Amino acid sequence: MELNGPDLKWPGVLVVGALLALALAYAVYRLMSRRQARASAAVANSGALTELPEYRRALRRHRIRMAVLAASAALLGGAALVGAARPLDTTVDKPQSRSRDIMLCLDISGSMAAYDATLVSTFKTLVKSFEGERIGLVIFNSSAATVFPLTDDYDFINEELDAAGRALTGDPAYDSFFAGTFNGRGTSLIGDGLATCVSSFDKVDLQRARSVVFATDNHLAGRPIIDLGEAAALARTKGVRVYGLNPEEDGPDQEAADMRTIVTSTGGRYFAMSDQSAIKDIVGSVEAQEATLIDSASRSLHSDDPTLPITLAGIGLVGVIGATRRWAS
């Protein structure tokens, strides 16, 4: 954040006020000159009076008081004018975001029905572990649908994950959550789902660390357009690491072994959901990827700063009151 210094919200007020003050001062000067000319009269033998030390001291004090009164009034009026122009402090904020993108990829096919709500809860725990990374969510069955694109609005992310949890626990008010996931042939088209997740990253021109947290049991039921091996190859081409999270592994099985091979080929890691350290290890693996800070568009921030004009106006007011009281005495 850079400080640009003081500024005025309405500088025109200062210009107009200064012109009016000059006009008023000139009018007062002309009026006093005319009165002085009309009131002047010759007084015989006044020289002896004006040479008295007491007279000279009184005249000197009077002139000082009038000078203080004039200066204080000018200070009070000028400070009030500056205050009316709304002094501001202007700073230029250059937001920065981390260059890590994380796509949450969830299989919502029938074989995953018993696990999906728990997986969404797992995703929420993952989100709490990140700060500044952009996160998105894609769900898939016979076709894939984006629930929300990459964003670093964590309040929004948590709201969407809460809605996903309600939908996956059978709340009919959230049936629209599944829209767009039944457009293909068959169910649980794993390769198509992963390929969609991998293709959901934007800003391909930037060197951003990209990760997919891929939650599936790898139980294929249909003919995908892209098989899992091809989706993994696409991930490697785009520099995306895939972290597999299998909720149904119960001892060694071929589907789990295939999934492990696929995700590790991208530079990612494989976890069984029963693994108590899975979340911690996924977070650690994602954060281990080098990330640079990216500058977002600059924006100017303005805040009122009336301290100086209020202080000067207070000094001027004290001077006016003090000089007036002493003059009246």
Summarize the structure.
With 329 residues, the chain is of the alpha/beta class.
Key structural traits:
rod-shaped; 10 helices; 329 residues; single chain; transmembrane helix; VWF_A; alpha/beta; 11 strands; three-stranded antiparallel beta sheet; transmembrane
List the helices and strands and how they pair.
Blueprint lengths: L1 E7 L2 H29 L7 H4 L2 H32 L2 E7 L2 E3 L1 E8 L8 H13 L5 E7 L3 E8 L2 H15 L21 H9 L10 E7 L12 H10 L2 E7 L7 H11 L5 E3 L5 H11 L4 E3 L3 E6 L2 H22 L1
Parallel strand pairs: 4-5, 4-7, 7-8, 8-9
Antiparallel strand pairs: 1-2, 2-11, 3-10, 5-6
Helix pairs in contact: 1-3, 3-10, 4-5, 6-7
Question: How does this structure look, described?
Answer:
By secondary structure, this protein is α/β, with parallel strands linked by helices. It folds into two domains: 7-89 and 305-328, no CATH class; 96-295, von Willebrand factor, type A domain (Rossmann fold, 3-Layer(aba) Sandwich). Helices cover 47% and strands 20% of the residues. It contains ten helices and eleven strands. It has helices at 11-39, 47-50, 53-84, 116-128, 154-168, 190-198, 228-237, 254-264, 278-288, 307-328, and strands at 2-8, 87-93, 96-98, 100-107, 134-140, 144-151, 209-215, 240-246, 270-272, 293-295, 299-304. Strands 6-5-4-7-8-9 form a six-stranded mixed β-sheet, with helices on both faces. It has a three-stranded antiparallel β-sheet with strand order 1-2-11. Strands 3-10 form a two-stranded antiparallel sheet. α4 (116-128) runs antiparallel to α5 and α6 (190-198) runs parallel beside α7. The longest helix has 32 residues, at 53-84. It starts with a strand and ends with a helix. The chain crosses the membrane at residues 12-29, 66-85. Pfam families: VWA (PF00092). Residues 101-286 form the VWFA domain. InterPro entries: VWF_A, vWFA_dom_sf. This is VWFA domain-containing protein.
